[in-house]
Structures are given as structure tokens and as C-alpha cells.
Design brief:
Elements: E1 6-15, E2 18-28, E3 33-37, H1 44-51, E4 59-64, E5 67-68, E6 71-74, E7 77-80, H2 83-91, E8 93-96, H3 108-118, H4 124-137, H5 153-165, E9 171-175, H6 183-198, E10 202-206, H7 210-216, E11 219-224, E12 227-232, H8 234-239, H9 244-253
Parallel strand pairs: 3-10, 3-11, 8-9, 9-10
Antiparallel strand pairs: 1-2, 1-4, 4-5, 6-7, 11-12
This protein binds adenosine-5'-diphosphate and magnesium ion.
Length: 254
Amino acid sequence: MTGEMVRADNVHKSFGSLEVLKGIDLVVKPGEVCCVLGPSGSGKSTFLRCVNHLEKINAGRILVDGELVGYRERGGKLHELAEKDVAKQRRSIGMVFQRFNLFPHMTVLDNVMEAPCRVKRENKAEVRDRATGLLERVGLGSKMGNYPGQLSGGQQQRVAIARALAMRPKLMLFDEPTSALDPELVGEVLDTMKDLAADGMTMVVVTHEIGFAREVGDNLIFMDGGVVVEQGPPREVIANPQHERTRAFLSKVL
Ligand code: ADP
Ligand code: MG
């Protein structure tokens, strides 16, 4: 334990000639909830994807729990990790997307059990106990035998959260987890995330839900054009943004 669950130093990422991240610095301490806001195209998803090495960064470095993501340092040089070592790092980081991507042909319980059983080859009975507990925790104890198609969007997203938690991650990344939901289903997913935060999970949450950021966030990052324009305690940033770009954005989403 390093006192820093996530550390990004001067992270740059380009797609061809398009520079999407132009030097991102960020620290998330264990147990903190970091909310990331910013207009569409500002690089929020790309940054999250860099944190678990789904995208390779071009410069800078990212550490998760003190460990370089995607690379190993030897003799002052960075060497990219082998695919199996990348996969191992990724297993300790849960990710929840806008789209739930559940396996449609598997029951809710099997969806949650799949990765620990197949990827980690854990004992099936133990995984079943844990998956059952997680589904109860997200309020879906009665839906374990159902198929995803029989569930509402909000319920499916809660299954996706339980599925990520089944791998016992030390960090959870959320990329606009409520953006695809009907408005009346947003609250149940945010409540689940709030419970998770209260339980001490370290979370990075890209969201436009200002209320959630204000209530649950320990830190708020406002990104625009591939840079962190401003950051601070959510209440302060929201009530008293220091930059015109932050003000303009907040006036649109508040
Ligand atoms: P946000 O999540 O803030 O809306 P993204 O990180 O998705 O922003 O995208 C930032 C920019 O990077 C956009 O201009 C987008 O078109 C571009 N981009 C994202 N992924 C790719 C990719 N795989 N190839 C090329 N361009 C990409
Ligand atoms: Mg995005």
C-alpha cells in the first residue's frame, strides 16, 4: 500500500496525429471517489482506458497501487509487460461502461460467476457464494436465475457492477455508468455506487451526475481538450468554478 491507489504523471495519448491527452496528472488515494467531468471528446474515456492499459500511453506514466501499469522499469528503461502480466494487472481493476455488455445467453448469476471461474479458476462453490452475496448487495437477490434480457437497464447495470466486484478489484473505474439509462433508473445505479463508496472502494467515476459528484466525490476533476482544467473538492468546484470553461460546462449540466 503506497497511499496512492492511482497516480498519473504527465500522461499523453495520441491517436495518429490527434493528441487526446496532453499531460494528465492525477492522484486518487485509497478509499477515495474521484469524479471526472468534462464535455464530450475531452478524453475522459481514453484516460480511463489508459488506467487499465486498454490504451497504451505515449508519454508519462500511470501507477495503480504503486505498480506501473503496462510496463516494467529495468535499467532506467520501460519495457512493456507481456500480455499475461497485463491481464493480471487488469484483473485487479474493475470497469463498468455505459453499455452493460452482459452475456445474454447466461443467467444473472452465471454472468457474475463467469470471470472468477474461467479467468481465475477459483473454486466454483466459493464463487457462487460470493456472487450470490454481491447480487443481494446490489438488490438483485431475486433475479439470479433470470436472463439479462428480462431485466431493466438499471438492473442490468447493477449486475454489471456485481460482475466487476466478483473479481475483488482494488479499484473500480466507471465510464458514464448511467448515461444510457432511462432517467427513472439512474437513481438505483447511483445508490449502488454510493453504497460501494461508503464501503471504502476506491473509484474513478466519469459522470455528468453533478449531484452524485457533490455528494459522494472526494475530488472532482474537470477535463477539457485533453487537459485537467481544474480540480478540487466537488462542492467547491461546483459552487465556485475558477475557469470559464468549467463555468460554461456546469451551466449546461446543472
Ligand atoms: P470523452 O470520453 O471525454 O467523450 P474520448 O476519450 O472518448 O472522450 O475521446 C477523445 C477524443 O479521442 C475524441 O476526439 C475521439 O474521437 C478520439 N478517439 C477516442 N478513441 C479513439 C480511437 N480508438 N481512435 C481514434 N480516435 C479516438
Ligand atoms: Mg466517454
